[in-house]
């Protein structure tokens, strides 16, 4: 009985010392590390230290208990036993869960807060999937440490996993395509995009299976991620929202091109400064490019703050340019066909 009492005292002292050492590590060492990492540019190191704080405490406590058991009659319950091995695995799993949460939180903060890009709602799904994988691997290791034969289980899981992968091929394809879209970020929430000249609108959701786009007509178009990852995408918000607007025009032959250039640019400058959505400090210009069938063709280049602003800017510019041309009687040609009729006297000379 006295020996048992002494063993219990040793174990209690070991536990108390472990708690004390764990507290010292948390309050002194980790606190000092946090002070150092707070001076770095990234917040990832801060989050990693915070995530490992509790697992380190539990690991120190477990080591302390094991150390105390080694000096008692209960040494058979030390780390060499399956129970302690299971506890070690659980601590490792807890550390991995905390690290995953820290990495995801940092990634979301880095993309959404600092770069001001929303990444969609796929991150919680990724977190759950990674956790399931860790739990499955941990359960396999735990069963192995308890002496359970895991080879048949792994074989069954492999066959079952293959069957599931074949059955949910489209779903898995969409899921991994969603991860690619989230990580590579060809598009982001709020971007105005166009897919293969068929769908055009704002990205309102990037999920684990599909991406939703709200068109200018206020309709919701749902596109599977697997098709989206293979599509030709035009992102009108990348690399910047502002964009050039090219407006075609033409004048009749014989016009004074220098005069037309001046009047056109003056009208464009007026629109750039006054119309909402135009880039006020942009200096518009024109470029003559073609001797067309009905006149000399050219393009006027303006700039708008984002894609949808071009409609109002074009509207106001056409009105402004039309008034400017009418004031100085500049003629904009319209399609016409000139027919030369052969005289009756010459018809006999025509050979077919």
Please outline the helices and strands.
Elements: H1 2-37, H2 44-69, H3 82-114, H4 123-145, H5 151-167, H6 169-184, E1 192-195, E2 199-206, E3 210-215, E4 220-224, H7 225-230, E5 233-235, E6 243-251, H8 257-274, E7 285-291, E8 296-304, H9 309-328
Antiparallel strand pairs: 1-2, 1-5, 2-3, 3-4, 6-8, 7-8
Helix pairs in contact: 1-2, 2-3, 3-4, 8-9
Structure in words:
The structure is a single chain. The chain is an alpha+beta fold and 352 residues long. It folds into 3 domains: 2-170; 183-235, SH3 type barrels, CATH 2.30.30.60; 243-328, Alpha-Beta Plaits. Helices cover 55% and strands 14% of the residues. The protein has helices at residues 2-37, 44-69, 82-114, 123-145, 151-167, 169-184, 225-230, 257-274, 309-328, and strands at 192-195, 199-206, 210-215, 220-224, 233-235, 243-251, 285-291, 296-304. The strands form 2 sheets. The protein has a 5-stranded antiparallel beta sheet with strand order 4-3-2-1-5. It has a 3-stranded antiparallel beta sheet with strand order 6-8-7. Helix 1 packs antiparallel against helix 2 (44-69) and helix 3 packs antiparallel against helix 4 (123-145). Mean pLDDT is 79; it is low at 347-352.
Q: What class would the helix/strand composition place it in?
A: alpha+beta
Low-confidence spans: 347-352
Largest sheet: 5 strands, antiparallel
The percent of residues in helical segments reads 55-70%
Our estimate of the beta-strand percent is 5-15%
- Oligomeric state of the chains present here: single chain
Q: How many distinct domains? A: 3
- Mean pLDDT, nearest integer? 79
Strand order of the largest sheet: 4-3-2-1-5
